[in-house]
Write a structure and sequence with these properties.
Length: 141
């Protein structure tokens, strides 16, 4: 596949998954909310959350086995820094009551004003943080 078709296919698959989750389960596909609810409020009804998370892990494991070249770390960051960054992002999604998949994909497609505000905030502070790292710290130079 070429460099344009791959992201288009990925976006279409994400859109399909989000649509199917809303149609068949009546739920928004916000990954951080699904994970947070699984860990903080385990219930019998929450089995679908664990199955969803298992599917995400199985998908990543399948790619690692079948196409490991797709998961190469090109950032020159060590695994400790990557894990710390992931944990900070996870903490931020709890503070922001959702993540980009919940607000940016699901919320915006439902014309949610709250999700619009959250997505603009995520993006704005992401741009600001990147500039701070580039110009003040030189982390990406």
């Amino acid at each position: 596949m070429n460099s344009v078709a791959t992201p288009l296919l990925g976006g279409a698959l994400i859109g399909l998954a989000v649509t199917l989750m809303l149609l068949f389960n009546g739920r928004v596909t916000g990954i951080s909310g699904i994970l947070y609810s699984s860990l903080s409020r385990p219930t019998q009804e929450g089995l679908w959350r664990w199955l969803f998370l298992a599917g995400l892990l199985a998908g990543g494991a399948s790619v690692q086995i079948l196409r490991p070249e797709l998961l190469i770390n090109l950032s020159d960051r060590n695994m400790t820094a990557i894990i710390l960054a992931g944990l900070l992002v996870g903490y931020g999604t709890v503070m922001g009551s959702g993540c980009t998949s919940g607000h940016g994909i699901c919320g915006l497609s439902r014309l949610s004003v709250r999700s619009l505000a959250a997505t603009v905030t995520f993006m704005l502070f992401g741009f600001i943080a990147a500039q701070v790292f580039v110009y003040l710290i030189g982390a990406f130079a």
